[in-house]
C-alpha cells in the first residue's frame, strides 16, 4: 500500500512539474508575440500615409482609357467582399472588393469580377472610373431602378495600424459594366459593416460601425435614397417609438412593405466589479466590451407619399418588432448574413465564441444551411438529398402529355374569358405559346461545361462567407476559419440547387499556403494534446461548463408546423415547379382574374401579363411550402414511396371511386 501511494505521489509531482513548464513557456511566447505586435503596429502607424496610398490607386485607375472585360482565372482569396446576382439576366454574378490578410500584411481590392454561370468562366473588368479598394461595404440590387448600388466600406494600412472609412455612393450598370459616382451630399456618414436592400424606387441603408483608433461605435440610423430624385434623406422615426439596437453584420431582406431585419453583432460596454480589492479595502470596478449576438427580428414599414402629395414629400418610416422566429439556429451565431430568395432568407455557416480568456478566444464554427421564411417567421434546416433512382412507370409519358394537354385547354378557356372581360374579340387573343427555353444574357452561349465535382456534405465550417442566389441556385464564395493564431481565407466557390438540394457542386477550389503570421498557439495546442492522456484524471474534475447564453439568445420552445389553411393549390411531394404550374395554372389564373376585377388599369392588361402574374403566384406558393414538402418526400421515400400521382392523372387509369381506387 505504501509503495502504491509513493508511486501516486511521484506521478502527481511529475504532472505538476510538466504543467508548470508549459505555463512558463506559454508566458514567454505570449510576451514575445505582444512585443513583436507592438513594434509592428507602431511602425505602421508612423510610416503609413493612407492619403498617399489611395492617391496612388487613383493614378493607376486613370491609366485605363475605357471599360474592358477580359477572360481570367477565378479571383484571388479575399474576405468581406460582396457577391450579388445580376438584376438584368440570370447568368451573371458580380464580385466586388474585399481584403486578404496573410498573417503579416493586409491587402485591399477594387477588382470587379463577373462569373458567367452558363459558360463557367470568370471575367475581370477594369475601368477608369471605379470605387477605390475597400472591404466591409454594402452592395445591393436597385429594385425598380435597376442596376447595382455600393456604399461605404473601409480601408487600412498594410499592417492595420490606421483605418479609413468611406462615405461614397456608386451605381454599377450591369449590362455595360460602367461605374457612376452619385452625389452623396446630405447622405449617410462613413461606415462599414452596414447592409442595404431595395424597396420600390428606394435604396434602404441601416446600421454598421465606425472604427477609430480609440473605440468602435455601432450605428442604428436608417437612410433612404430616392433613385428618381437622386437624393438621400435620413428617416425620421415617430417619437418614443421602438427601434433595433445598434449593430453590424446583420441581415436586411427586401419585403413588399419595406424591409425585414434579422440578427447582427455588436459590442456593448458593461461595468463589472473587479475581483481584487483596492488598497483601501473597497471593491473596484472596470468597464469591458461585451459581445452581443442579436437574434431579434424587425419590420421596417415604409409608406411612400400618395400621388397627390406635394413635391418633395418624404415617405413615412417606422419599425415594428416581430415575435421571436421559430427554430432559430442553435446556438446563436454571428457571421451568417442571409441572401434573399423568393420570400426567404438563405443563411450558411457562422461562428460562436465559447470562451474568452487571456490566452485568446475559443470559437465554434458551423456549416449548416437554413432557410428563413419571412412571412411565417420560421427557420427551416436544409439538408442535402441524394437523387432518386426510381424511374417513371410505364405509361408515365402518356399521362404527362395528357396532363399538359388538359392544362393547355383550361388555359385557352381562361384567356377567352379574359378577352371578354376586356372587351376584345377572340381574334385579338394571344394564345399561349409552347414552353420556351430559359433566357440567356446577351452575347452568352451555353457551352459544353466540364462536369464539376459534387460533394454530398456541406462545405467546411466558416463564417462571413459571401452568398448570392441566381436562378434558384445558392452560390457560396470564400469565408473565414480560424485555428489558433492562423486565419484561413477559403479560396473556393460552391453551388447548391435550392430546389433539389442534390449535393454541393464545386465551382473552383484552391489551397492556401502563404500564411506568414505566428503559429505559436497552434503548436501549443499540439503539445497539450501530447500530454492530454496524463492529465485526463484532473480534467474530469475540471470540465468547463457550457457558456451561459445572453438573455436575447435563449431558444424559444418548439412549435408545430403551421397548417396551410388557404384554398389555393398546394404542391405535391416529388412535384416540380413546372409540373405544379401545369396542373394548377387554371386556379392561379382564376385567382389573378378575381384580383384584377378590383384594379383600375385592367384595360391595359395583356394575356402575357395574366400568365406572368399567375406563374409568379404559383412560384411563390411552391417555394413557400418547399421545406414542408421536402419533409413529406423524405418520409415517403423512407416508406418506399418515390412518386405520388393522382388517379385522375394516370394514363388509362380509372377515375371512379370503386373499392380498388379507395384502397390505393
TrEMBL record:
It comes from the Eukaryota. Residues 1-51, 512-573, 643-664 are annotated as: Disordered. Residues 564-651 form the DUF4110 domain. Residues 650-664 have a biased composition (Gly residues). Residues 1-40 have a biased composition (Basic and acidic residues). Residues 41-50, 514-543 have a biased composition (Acidic residues). InterPro entries: DUF4110 (IPR025183), Kelch-typ_b-propeller (IPR015915), Kelch_domain_protein (IPR052588). PANTHER family: KELCH DOMAIN-CONTAINING PROTEIN, KELCH DOMAIN-CONTAINING PROTEIN 4. This is Kelch repeat-containing protein 3. It comes from Friedmanniomyces endolithicus. The lineage of its organism: Eukaryota, Fungi, Dikarya, Ascomycota, Pezizomycotina.
